[in-house]
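Appendix B. Chain record.
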Amino acid sequence: MTATTHDDAVHRQFSPQATAYLNSAVHAQGEDLRQMAAIAAAQPGARVLDLGCGGGHVSFHVAPSAASVTAYDLSQQMLDVVAAEAARRGQDNLSTCRGKAERLPFADGEFDLVMSRYSTHHWQDPGLGLREAFRVLKPGGTAVFADVVSPGEALLDTWLQMIEALRDTSHVRDYSVAEWTRLLTEAGFTLQGVTPRRLSLEFQSWVTRMRTPDTLVAALRHLLAIAPDVVRAHFEIQADGSFSSDTATLVVRKPG
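Structure tokens predicted for this chain:
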């Protein structure tokens, strides 16, 4: 059997779907994006790192007020799509860089703002990734992390992680707000605020975007259909399998 790594899983899942993530309505809009853009606008001329940029939507939203934006991702195909879209938009202050969140090729204190959206649940070592984000942020700088979060209750958490992993083999974990707070504090950050939100996910586009195999799509439909009432109620599971997830936007500061 050929050995594979978690990085291989990320490449396999995301590289062929780079354009789909650029065009995904779930990723291209949302109150969390507007919140990030407002934070960047309040610091005009900032040097911004978009950590785990995916389709580049954070980068595109903050570029108008930033001095420079570095879109950083493990997938070169994602970065190629982001670079092409930035050129189309005339955002010549946006550049791309490839690598892992846990090993950033940047100097200490290189960025005024670090932002990351829907990325951390793919990181193999989130603690190390957050420590790296802390390292490259200047003293007194702000970081913003937005992601799907676990409800923090055992039964709901089990169901969430199960359907996420079936849909996407590169999924590691959706962390609860309590877990996020611990990880961020251990990395050295000071928590400034948490904004909870809900994210509605239409089932067919959710699995199509990830190219989930038919056998796993069938398993997902079956699991969602037999979910216990407490799970169905919390995730607002619909007859077609569509559901809602909890998300949170966490704003933190590096002391200094």
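Further analysis of this model is presented in Appendix C.
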